[in-house]
Amino acid sequence: MSERPQNDDHDDLGDKRSGGPDGADRFDEIVDTETTRDPDLAVIEAGSRTLRAQAGPPQGDGIPARPVDPEVERALREVEAELAGRWGETKLDPSLERIRKLMDVLGQPQHAYPSIHITGTNGKTSTARMIEALLSAFDLRTGRYTSPHVQTYLERISLDGAPISAERFVETYRDIEPYVRMVDEREEFRLSFFEVLTGMAFAAFADAPVDVAVVEVGMGGTWDATNVVDGTVAVVTPISLDHTDRLGSTPGEIALEKAGIIKQDATVVLAQQPVDAAQALLKRAVEVDATVAREGMEFGVVAREVAVGGQLLTLRGLGGEYPEVFLPLYGAHQAHNAAVALAAVEAFFGIGSQHARTLDLDVVRRAFASVTSPGRLEVVRRSPTVVLDAAHNPAGARAAAEAVTEAFGFSRLVGVVATSADKDVRGVLEAFEPVFAEIVVTRNSTDRTMDVDELAALAVEVFGEERVQVEPRLDDALEAAITLAEEEGEYAGAGVLVTGSVFTVGDARLLLRGRD
User: What mean pLDDT comes out for the span 221-239?
Assistant: First the structure.
């Protein structure tokens, strides 16, 4: 049996300021002991031993803390390590054969409930969270599967709007483990990390049982492991250039791959798209006789204004208008995500096809007011304000730059940036150049992170040498950026934006939560 070798070299996180005089030594010790571990797992474990233990678990943001019970913690670490030993999410095989065989031996759990299936380039997770909030507000039991996670695997599988518990996560893995092993033994390659986690999600949803699953693709669509569901509603968030080495070099080519989630007779909800992407998606809809709802045509954002802690929206759904909807997220892109989410839920309830009415306005307002989306223009510190955003491609970076300017109005904004090496890093830097007064370049804790010297060279080309500072360690980069922001004085209104990768955001969150 073939297996991908695992040898992930990475730095991990520690905070010498919260760790006392020996903080630097503890940081080095963590790095030394974790170099053979999966980078995602290492971030989790380092955080649990340093910052989490002192700051306490975050509250109300959908990011679970590590288990308090040492036996549960030990069992969870064992499962995380077993999952991390499989093919990672950047190792892809364009085939659904393994996941289909796993579903067969598990008894097809993905067909035990209807699904809303979500693809696109940007906005998938936020849209999934909004859809989940709306469905839950209408008293449906929900399961949500999203990726990647910000800090822990548990975030990826949610039941009734909350991350799966560590106990249930372990139990679900152990329940399906014999069947995973059975498929592994029959295939040339073992099931990947993402395939096993997808199987766990579908099994957990069936066991709950849920009334509806909200499922985000991992990458692409046609060959994504999630594409064994029959999405009664397919959602496509905005498509732009990302993963071009795997999905295509134009939005139209990428849309061909993502269009694979649109099933026969389904309803497809389309966010605003580039022309060539829209053409590919509409062609697929015609081929499978799907009903189409298009942003800007059948639904959309009627009005929006900045409000304290978010924005106030008027949305036009498939059944009519929804005025004065408060959304506690920042940016025009989140308003558009809200319109897409609303249309998807309306379509799920048959509005626009079987019913010509709106959903209950008060319920819709309550649902949107409850939405959180960790790592998406999330404020984690005040005075100076530190904001986290997981933008990792040029389109996401442009949206974040526009939103942070509109929502916060900083007099001076300092960027902390660490990216993955396989991204359009120049495009990301160019998107942020107009809004960053200075930029501190660094690295995150994964082996995919861009070499800090290479990132610095690109940053100098885009920003000029006088605006670029280099700090190889993220904790030092955060300290440097906060110091730069504080130079304007307590009441000057300077801020820090940490961005470039969901991994960077996850690392920074571990360092900064609890220090407000």
Answer: 94
> Sheet harboring 291-294: ordered strands across?
162-163, 157-159, 142-145, 212-216, 115-119, 231-236, 267-270, 291-294
Which secondary structure element, helix H or strand E, spans residue 158, and what is its range? strand 157-159
Say if residue 402 is exposed, middle or buried (CB neighbours under 10 Å; 0-12, 13-18, 19+). middle
pLDDT at 218 over 60: yes
pTM of the predicted model as reported, rounded to 2 decimal places: 0.83
In degrees, to the nearest 5, what angle opens at C-alpha 56 toward C-alphas 52 and 58? 95
Q: Check: CB of residue 474 under 8 Å from CB of residue 507.
A: yes
Give CA–CA dist 384/386, Å, rounded.
Answer: 6
Nearest to 121 by CA among 345, 398, 509: 398
Q: How do beta strands 310-316 and 321-327 pair?
A: antiparallel
Strands 231-236 and 212-216: unpaired
User: With 90 as the cut, is the pLDDT of residue 342 above it?
Assistant: yes
What does the pLDDT read at residue 490? Answer: 57
Label residues 184-193 b or e (16+ Cβ within 10 Å = b). Answer: beebebbbbb
In this structure, the number of other CB atoms found within 10 A of the CB of residue 320 comes to 14
Alpha carbon 381 to chain centroid, angstroms: 21
The domains found in the chain, sorted by start residue, are: 70-370 (3.40.1190.10), 378-514 (3.90.190.20)
DSSP 3-state of 469:
strand
What's at 285, amino acid-wise? A
pLDDT at 30 over 60: no
Beta carbons within 10 angstroms of residue 234's beta carbon = 32
For residues 416 and 3, the model is more confident at 416
7 CB neighbour count, 10 Å cutoff = 8
Alpha-carbon gap, residue 426 to 132, rounded angstroms: 35
Task: Give how far the C-alpha of residue 173 lies from the chain's centroid of Cα atoms, to the nearest Å.
Answer: 22
Digit-coded pLDDT (tens) for 110-161:
999 999 999 998 899 999 999 999 999 999 999 999 988 888 899 999 999 9
Distance CA 462, CA 468 (A): 10
**CA proximity to 359, closest of 311, 310, 299:** 299
